[in-house]
Specification:
The complex is a heterodimer of chains A (360) and B (535). With 360 residues, chain A is mostly helical. Chain A is 71% helix and 4% strand. Chain A contains 16 helices and six strands. In chain A, helix 2 runs parallel beside helix 14, helix 3 packs across helix 13 and helix 10 crosses helix 12. Chain B is built from 20 helices and ten strands. Classes of the chains: A mainly alpha (360), B alpha+beta (535). At the A-B interface, helix 7, helix 13 and helix 15 of A face helix 7, helix 14, helix 16 and helix 20 of B.
């Protein structure tokens, strides 16, 4: 009787959506605890916390932000390949607003000498952030219109912006890497209030998204569109509007990620910012167990997925694995993920758990 | 008469996107030939095939994959791995034919592995091939961090042989002009192209590919129920694409006569874009290998036009390709929509049918307007920016990038400088060289005046630590160079630390220099004094 209960609890845990991602994260952290001395050491410097674990979270913040938007997009059965390019556009817009001399805007001579001053910005910070996010939202809207109203496959529609977007980002800054001197902007990605400031952004974005998708019907609508758009349409859901909404939201997330990334390196590097990051974001969602075909999704699982990717990266660096080898290892990790989520493995898992529960 | 034309169009509806592509090529090339006399040379036309032979090979394989409703992101990784492995094996003295055979085997093995993940483990093609790409690219660096030059007789011969056209050559030699020619890789790429066309049209394997991908990729089950070998076909398709990637990789290594893990970065997107522009739907089942040739050609033509224009920056290629992709998808969706129009109205009351037609008409106008706006913007936007940039372009001609003032740098280093930094070029034609000394002295020299600045030793230590932190003395930081570049600057940074000395060169506005280099430069930039005259 008691054993039955235990096995039921076990199967309940293993059936949980968060089980595999958390298990993966725990395994990596366990590995770190054993093989890398001082991995979990956290230092306090000027009332702020520093350490490898914090680094993992901080470096994962851009992918986490993207993964939140990407989860919703994938839940509708779509995909957004353009997030990296939108990040680059956002970074370019932000940089150009703070320092427009690059594109030939003449500043009055009394302002010109302050251009490299850490307290100087051409446009106020709130304006920079607002305009950047609006531009990112417009990019998302563009994707959404193509997917929802022009009936273009998500992959192709977002491929267009993925290819053209990076060109546009370079066009905005005239191909120049603009250095960002303005300190308050750098705070977005580099600031700490006990924890890295970017983590608060992730937390707030996650909380809002979670509330909206789980405490209103929108989350259910998104899942239903992902499972069967036609059926959702006939049951009175405006599936086009839902699709438009998720792509726009993904654009917004990409904009926020672009702000974090560019303030983190204090440059608008239109070519390198967010390069191939869309793959990481999608991988995070897949590790989180959201099916690429759409349907049920889990935001916390995607965040854990992003942490898993970053934890592997940080672990490898801590072990002294050269950066180039990382890609090969990342590839092997993806293979592992494929194996874990494959039908044969699931059947095996079911067999194991059900055998246990049937024991007398 | 018009009824006949209508019928003809209706009958050959599936060829409309392809015809549009062909028309666009003809128009674009004609406009190019009118604007730039250099483009009238037939060699320029042939060069488009010569320079994109690897793209065509890869795109043929990708077309087959896309037709099954799948996708293969691994092509760029496999190509890079092939170049590195080829170069490394040749360097170690292996027979060139054996190397080529081995590379083809490797491509087949990689493709088959990814295919079996997709078929037997039911992995998303997207994810499985992403893993393949990362794995292959990572493996490149296990073989070698640096680019390896290829010095081999066979490869040399292949890259140099000119295939002339009998008859035409005599005319050209008679005129005393160099005769147009093709290269061996072009012939190979066309062989693969024709084989791909034949396979997809006339073999059981090819027809099964279409059957699997039909109905927007949802036809797999129907195909299985029809008794078609779905699993085997899918596995084979990814294997064939692995083979094509290996061939493309060999062609690429012949093209650049070296191998490096960073080659062909992001090529998979070019390949996919050319497949889409060739009229193949990414959902599968619709399209042809024949169309892919047009897609590849359009991509090459865009690059050629931008090169001939000269004042347009390289990023315009990306924007134009993006817009063109949109244009073709617009045409495709127009064609796909018009298919269903007639049928639906048959079952409606006359009143409803009238309204429906009206709605459709509006929609059709909308799509056409959208397509028109996009195509107009393709034609006019570059022209507008051209006019704006005209003044700058003449200015930037005077501002060629200069060589590193190495003697000056050596002089500084002999004096005990630990960092020497030079940047030159830009719209103001500057040439500034700075020396940073361990005691905090910074000297700047722009050829006209010398300025000095004193900072603390701690600041210099911090700067040095920062640069070393970026892995200055590792292979992560390497030289790059590209011209033309518009109004860009050339950067040179020499760092001396504990007996090691390393100089890294880079040009901004391009896409080649490592990101860490720019971060190191920005660290130095932040500390050096500014000249009043410059910027």
């Amino acid at each position: 009787m008691n054993r039955d209960k235990v096995s039921r609890v076990i199967s309940r845990i293993t059936q949980n959506r968060l089980f595999l991602p958390i298990l993966a994260l725990l395994l990596i952290l366990l590995f770190d605890a054993i093989f890398i001395p001082g991995f979990f050491r956290i230092q306090v410097r000027d009332n702020d916390l520093y350490g490898r674990v914090i680094d993992i979270m901080r470096n994962a913040s851009t992918v986490m932000v993207l993964a939140i938007g990407m989860t919703l997009v994938i839940a509708t059965g779509g995909i957004d390949l353009s997030v990296g390019a939108v990040m680059a556009i956002a970074a370019s817009v932000a940089a150009i607003m703070m320092n427009p001399t690059i594109i030939g805007v003449q500043l009055p001579p009394n302002l010109m000498k302050f251009i490299n001053d850490p307290n100087f910005t051409y446009s106020p910070l709130w304006e920079v952030i607002l305009v950047t996010l609006i531009v990112a939202i417009v990019c998302g809207l563009w994707n959404g219109v193509l997917v929802a109203y022009m009936d273009i496959q998500a992959m192709v529609a977002t491929l267009i912006l993925m290819i053209a977007g990076r060109g546009i980002a370079q066009l905005i800054t005239n191909g120049v890497r603009i250095q960002i001197f303005y300190e308050p902007y750098a705070f977005i990605g580099q600031g700490w209030i006990l924890l890295p400031f970017s983590l608060y952004i992730v937390a707030i974005l996650f909380a809002i998204t979670w509330l909206i998708t789980r405490k209103t019907a929108i989350g259910m609508f998104i899942e239903s569109v992902g499972i069967n758009p036609k059926a959702s349409h006939y049951s009175g859901i405006n599936e086009k509007r839902i699709k438009l909404l998720v792509y726009t939201f993904s654009g917004l997330c990409a904009g926020i990620a672009g702000l974090i990334a560019s303030s983190n390196i204090k440059t608008s590097d239109a070519y390198n910012i967010g390069k191939t990051i869309e793959l990481d974001a999608i991988l995070a969602v897949v590790i989180g167990g959201t099916a690429m075909t759409g349907g049920r999704f889990s935001l916390p699982a995607s965040l854990i997925g992003a942490l898993v990717i970053q934890a592997i990266t940080t672990t490898m660096y801590a072990l002294g694995v050269p950066a180039f080898a990382l890609q090969a290892i990342k590839g092997l990790v993806v293979v592992l993920v494929i194996l874990l989520y494959s039908e044969p493995f699931k059947a095996f898992l079911n067999k194991v758990t059900s055998e246990k529960s049937h024991q007398p | 008469m018009s009824e006949k034309i209508k019928q003809f169009i209706r009958k050959n509806r599936q060829y409309i996107p392809l015809t549009a592509t062909a028309l666009l090529i003809v128009i674009a090339y004609t406009v190019g030939a009118i604007l730039y006399p250099g483009m009238r040379n037939p060699q320029v036309f042939l060069n488009i095939f010569k320079n994109n032979a690897y793209l065509l090979v890869s795109a043929v394989g990708m077309t087959l994959v896309v037709l099954t409703g799948g996708i293969d992101l691994s092509v760029s990784g496999v190509i890079a791995l092939t170049t590195v492995a080829t170069a490394a094996l040749l360097r170690d003295g292996m027979n060139a034919w054996l190397v080529i055979a081995l590379m083809l085997l490797m491509g087949i093995a990689l493709g088959a592995t990814m295919g079996s993940f997709i078929v037997y483990l039911k992995a998303q093609p997207w994810i499985a091939t992403l893993a393949g790409m990362w794995f292959a690219r990572g493996m490149c660096f296990f073989i070698s961090d640096d680019a390896i030059a290829i010095e081999n007789r066979l490869f040399d011969i292949i890259s140099r042989v000119k295939i002339l056209f009998p008859g035409i050559t005599e005319i050209y030699t008679g005129l005393g002009r160099p005769a147009p020619y093709l290269s061996i890789p072009v012939i190979v790429s066309f062989l693969i192209f024709f084989t791909g066309m034949f396979i997809s049209r006339y073999t059981r394997f090819g027809r099964t590919i279409y059957a699997i991908g039909g109905n927007e990729g949802r036809n797999e089950e129907s195909a299985t129920l029809m008794g078609l070998p779905v699993n085997r076909t899918k596995l084979l398709v990814y294997t064939v694409n692995g083979f094509c990637s290996a061939v493309a990789g060999i062609i690429f290594s012949i093209f650049v006569t070296s191998g490096h893990g960073l080659y062909a970065d992001g090529l998979e997107m070019d390949v996919i874009a050319s497949v889409v522009m060739g009229g193949t739907m990414l959902s599968g089942g619709v399209g042809s290998v024949f169309g892919t040739l047009f897609g590849v050609f359009i991509l090459g033509l865009t690059q050629t036009l931008i090169q001939f224009n000269g004042s347009l920056s390289s990023w315009w290629t990306k924007i134009v390709i993006g817009l063109l992709t949109l244009l073709f998808i617009g045409v495709q969706s127009l064609v796909a929509r018009s298919k269903g129009w007639g049928k639906k109205t048959e079952m409606m009351s006359p009143e409803a049918a009238k309204q429906y037609r009206k709605k459709l008409w509006l929609r059709r106008v909308g799509v056409v307007a959208g397509v028109a706006v996009v195509s107009l913007s393709i034609i006019f936007v570059p022209r507008i920016t051209n006019q704006e940039g005209a003044g700058q372009a003449t200015q930037s001609i005077r501002c060629e990038l200069k060589e590193y003032r190495r003697e000056k740098a050596e002089e500084f280093l002999r004096d005990g400088a630990i960092i020497v930094y030079e940047r030159n070029g830009g719209s103001n034609c500057i040439d500034e060289i700075y020396a940073i000394y361990p005691d905090g002295l910074i000297v700047g020299d722009n050829g006209e005046e010398i300025i000095e600045k004193q900072v603390t030793e701690a600041e210099i230590e911090l700067l040095m630590a920062g640069i070393l932190d970026y892995g200055w003395f590792t292979d992560e930081l390497y030289d790059t160079w590209h011209v033309p570049c518009g109004q860009c600057y050339g950067y040179y940074l020499t760092v001396v630390y504990e007996g090691q000395e390393k100089t890294v060169t880079g040009v901004d506005g391009g896409t080649d220099a490592p990101a860490l280099f720019w971060q190191a430069i920005s660290l130095v930039k932040g500390i050096v004094p500014k000249f009043d005259t410059a910027s």
